[in-house]
Amino acid sequence: MLRHLTILILCCAPLAAQTPKAGKPKPFKQLPGEVKVFELTNRERKKAELKPLVLSTHLSKIARAHSENMARQGKMEHVLDEKTPFDRMADAGYKYLKAGENIASYRGGDNEALEQIMKAWMESKLHRENIVRKEFTEIGIGIARDKEGRAYITQAFGTPLPKGK
Question: For position 60, what pLDDT does the model report?
Answer without folding.
Answer: 98
